[in-house]
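Re: that chain you flagged

S.,

Sorry for the slow reply, it's been a week of failed gels. I finally had a moment to sit down with the sequence you sent. For the record, here it is as I used it:
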Amino acid sequence: MADTTTVARPYARAAFEVARDSDSLQRWSDFLNMLSAVVQDPQMVAVLDNPDLGADTKGEAVLEVCADSASDDETRNFIRTLAENRRLPLLPKITAVFEHLRAEAEKTVAAEVISARKLTKAQEEEISSALAKRLDRRVEIRNTVDSSLLGGAIIRAGDLVIDGSARGKLHKLAVAMGQ
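Prediction finished late last night. Pasting the structure tokens below so you have them in one place:
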């Protein structure tokens, strides 16, 4: 069986190209995120996993739930194509690939900053500015508080991980001392 990301990629690219060409990346992003939530709902999972229902019926079930968001031909056709090819359960992967393509096109990166206390606006701006210079991208900071860190922060932005936490520094010291 092929990797689900590999199978999802062509659908995500197609959605991305339609969204980019129609200057509607945000609308498609919202649409795909909503679709992902719908297909992960336990009631919809039961419908999609039902072998007695045909692809058309499954597609129409998703369209019915998403009627407000899938109001144009492009979005409705996208859902129908996924249904015909039995790819509706792949929507979370399709959405993730789409978001990656969007971030690349917009030169943005989401950075998670895990800190012992909530960051101030000034701290967020300082971290965002430093990461923007390093990554050559616009950085969107999401702060998560983890009181077990004692102090400092851990920053995750794409593949980059910077552990500046007190716990991380103590671990590095212990490793250096052979503990």
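What I noticed first: The longest helix spans residues 4-21.

Talk soon,
D.
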